[in-house]
């Protein structure tokens, strides 16, 4: 019972604090380092325990899918817990309510990147489930080899659960905590979106430590920074963190399915 006041504080409005850009800068760098450090460190540790060394989307469903999926989800959950701790250490400590619903004026032009982000997410899912017409020799109408069959339903469900966990945890830190802290420090809308998107992009650079080629990790860093701007738009237009978190999870699920089926089937 003695711990309830701490939980109550997390669910109520945070006490005001004087804006401090210098302290915010140190806190922001800590977020850039801390979240991926917890995620990568725990993922590598789990890799040693489970004997797996690759969690890239192209191979996340092979050869031991549920082990790899847990290795992706659990570290993200640990890092997501860190984001709530980091929220209380911000220059203006924030609460769960501060994180999931933030002040801001909707702007008509933001519907364009928000809508495009949703469209691409669901297009990736469609690509993952797309089938081709094949001839008697097993070749498609375009002359390509058949795509691999869909993974078992259980593996698809595990992948979806994993990507939703990733979406919730990453959006909590990068759209929720970082974005709210920047708002509290008086940054304008453009700066808020850029700060959260840059942090989100840099999160993916350490993927090179998890089996992703360095060039691919650098490319992914740039792409995800742009995606981060779309997620920022979704948050701003919807007014609730659940929307970008859901779209993020769907995007990652589609990327996993499409990446898995981009390799030729092995006969």
Could you give the topology of this structure?
Layout: H1 4-10, H2 21-50, H3 65-88, H4 96-100, H5 111-129, H6 153-184, H7 189-203, H8 214-238, H9 242-260
Helix pairs in contact: 2-3, 2-6, 3-6, 5-8, 5-9, 6-7, 6-9, 7-8, 8-9
**Quick one: overall form?**
globular
State the major sheet.
none
Low-confidence stretches are 1-17, 134-138
- Amino- and carboxy-terminal Cα gap: 61 Å
Q: What's the Cα radius of gyration? A: 20 Å
Overall average residue pLDDT: 80
Q: Which bin fits the share of residues in helices?
A: 55-70%
Tally the beta strands: 0
Count of helical regions: 9
Coarse structural class = mainly alpha
Q: In percent, how much strand structure appears in the residues?
A: under 5%
- What count of domains describes the coordinates? 1
Element string (H = helix, E = strand): HHHHHHHHH
Quick recap of the structure?
The protein is mainly alpha-helical and 267 residues long. The protein contains nine helices and no strands. It has one domain.
Characteristic key phrases:
9 helices, 0% strand, 267 residues, disordered N terminus, single chain
Notes on the structure:
The protein has 267 residues and is mostly helical. It has one domain. The chain contains nine helices and no strands. It has helices at 4-10, 21-50, 65-88, 96-100, 111-129, 153-184, 189-203, 214-238, 242-260. Helix 2 (21-50) runs antiparallel to helix 6. The longest helix is centred in the middle third of the chain and has 32 residues, at 153-184. It is globular. The N and C termini lie far apart (61 Å). Mean pLDDT is 80; it is low at 1-17 and 134-138.
